[in-house]
Design a protein that fits this description.
Blueprint (H helix, E strand, L loop, with lengths): L1 E9 L5 H15 L6 E7 L11 E7 L2 H9 L1 H13 E10 L1
Amino acid sequence: MIKHIVMVKFKPEVTQEQQAEFAKKVPEVLAQIPGAKNITLGLALAVEGEARYDGATFMDFDDEAQLRAYLDHPMHQAIDAQGQAMCSDYLVVNFVY
């Protein structure tokens, strides 16, 4: 299994409402892409000081081939482009478990 994690930092001009709308939309879109499962998205909670990232998406894939197909999928490409327009920074990490 592969855990795909994307953490984002929104641009200062992106409102809380826009962040919440994007957070609602992302899992709905990504769930339609074959191979993506256990999709979770959340906005950061500052418990131990200010959060370095504003939100994160977590999802699983059975293998690397599914992850690569997901990355090339047009629906992922579209939501990724929208996210990049809204974000000043992001971090992507993939773990095999």
